[in-house]
């Protein structure tokens, strides 16, 4: 469970001190916290162990739970801070911040208000860290951002000013529970007859339109359909963020520009035209 920053000030003071020590060693040893999380964990374990050794002298209070403290330090330095436990929880499907003091999650399709309380500065820090890993930017020229987190989760951010008083955040976790149409049959999402019909349609090269509301399963369905494409053909997708697998993928970059040429041709429309070009494959399909 995430630490409540309001009701546990003494614990937070200790976490802050150890956090500073971990960050200092990460900088000193030249560790990339996003790419080398295992090294960050080793450093956090060393810092907590040193603190426990010092606590034997009575100079500092001991850590109540070494494992939990190491996990929180790794989440703060290498992960996404107090949101990391929700990202690690396989039952949590979605996370959103309506305002910093009201953080919601969706678990098994049901919405829950968590006991996590943040402030505007903390939300901005988390957003900056998330966007750094994606290469996207959030500013007045691009006040809405769709991006992908390292684990494949989809991030939606709206700049403060467009929303009132804070930056709004939504994370839809990528939980792929089916890889083929037969998996959807096993899950009870499709009948065997429907699965056979869709597979035959894909193999015949027919157009298939997949539509639905948020979290209706569109990406899962597209991945299952893509798995039905014959092995001799190549699939090219044009996506806002990378969500499909086992295909050639290109990504749109709204607002991307160059100093001399202005906006670059990376829109969905431009990529769709390129995906249909012969140089990709003589038998390429477009998703």
Automatic annotation (TrEMBL):
| Domain Bacterial type II secretion system protein E, first and last residues per copy | 79-245
Q: What is this protein called?
A: Flp pilus assembly complex ATPase component TadA
User: What gene is this protein a product of?
Assistant: tadA
In Pfam terms, one family for this protein is T2SSE
> Which source organism?
Nocardioides pinisoli
Against Gene3D superfamilies, the record matches this protein to: 3.30.450.380, P-loop containing nucleotide triphosphate hydrolases (3.40.50.300)
Q: Which InterPro entries match?
A: P-loop_NTPase, T2SS/T4SS_dom, T4SS_GSP_E_ATPase
Which family does the similarity line name? Belongs to the GSP E family.
Q: Which domain of life is it from?
A: Bacteria
């Amino acid at each position: 469970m995430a630490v409540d920053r309001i009701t546990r000030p003494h614990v937070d003071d200790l976490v802050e001190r150890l956090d500073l020590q971990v960050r200092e060693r990460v900088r000193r040893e030249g560790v990339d916290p996003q790419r080398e999380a295992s090294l960050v964990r080793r450093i956090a374990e060393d810092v907590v162990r040193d603190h426990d050794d010092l606590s034997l002298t009575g100079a500092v209070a001991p850590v109540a739970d070494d494992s939990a403290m190491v996990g929180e330090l790794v989440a703060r330095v290498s992960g996404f801070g107090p949101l990391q436990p929700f990202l690690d929880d396989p039952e949590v499907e979605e996370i959103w911040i309506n305002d910093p003091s009201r953080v919601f999650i969706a678990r098994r399709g049901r919405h829950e208000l968590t006991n996590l309380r943040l402030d505007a500065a903390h939300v901005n820090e988390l957003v900056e860290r998330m966007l750094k890993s994606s290469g996207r930017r959030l500013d007045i020229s691009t006040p809405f951002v769709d991006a992908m987190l390292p684990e494949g989760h989809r991030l939606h951010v709206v700049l403060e000013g467009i929303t009132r008083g804070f930056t709004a955040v939504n994370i839809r976790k990528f939980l792929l529970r089916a890889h083929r149409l037969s998996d959807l049959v096993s899950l009870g999402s499709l009948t065997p007859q429907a699965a056979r019909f869709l597979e035959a349609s894909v193999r015949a090269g027919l157009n298939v339109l997949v539509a639905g509301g948020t979290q209706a399963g569109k990406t899962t369905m597209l991945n299952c359909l893509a798995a039905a494409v014959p092995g001799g053909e190549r699939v090219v997708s044009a996506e806002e963020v990378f969500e499909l697998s086992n295909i050639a993928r290109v990504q749109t970059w709204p607002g991307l520009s160059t100093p001399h040429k202005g906006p670059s041709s990376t829109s969905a429309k431009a990529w769709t035209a390129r995906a249909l070009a012969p140089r990709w494959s003589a038998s390429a399909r477009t998703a």
